[in-house]
Give the backbone structure.
Amino acid sequence: MLDDKDPNAGAGLYERRWERYKLNRQGMLLTVNLDLAVPKTRPCRLTEISLGNATFTVNTAIGLPSHYYLSVVGIAARIGCAEIYRNNEFISVQFIKEIDQELLHSIVRSDYFTGGVANRKKETRPYMVGVEKTAIGSALA
């Protein structure tokens, strides 16, 4: 029997477990090699995030391991990630541990205030579609 209090209960194989938010936010991927040397960083562009996963694009995925940390510019947190999908520059990851609601809220809110998805130009539809423009004061025959 499903528990009505758990919003993730009953999530099927192809159903999404978390609400997703569209972003246009700069991030960094931090990788640590086996020699434990200085972590290597790589810029990325976050396009979508939820409590349990994220999608982003990178310039090149060559040499990128399947486990790394995601750091969002302007947010003081490192999120452990495991890749679940990679197609050239497009990458989808699942977080090792779900992030808390406050961190998700601060990432989405900072994207809004810095001009992310909310300030993208939208397709404008003319006010009166299909109405012919006529000069002011012209007489219709």
User: Anything to note?
Assistant: Residues 52 and 98 are 5 Å apart (CA to CA). The domain at 21-114 is CATH 2.40.10.220 (Thrombin, subunit H). Confidence is low (pLDDT under 50) at residues 118-122.
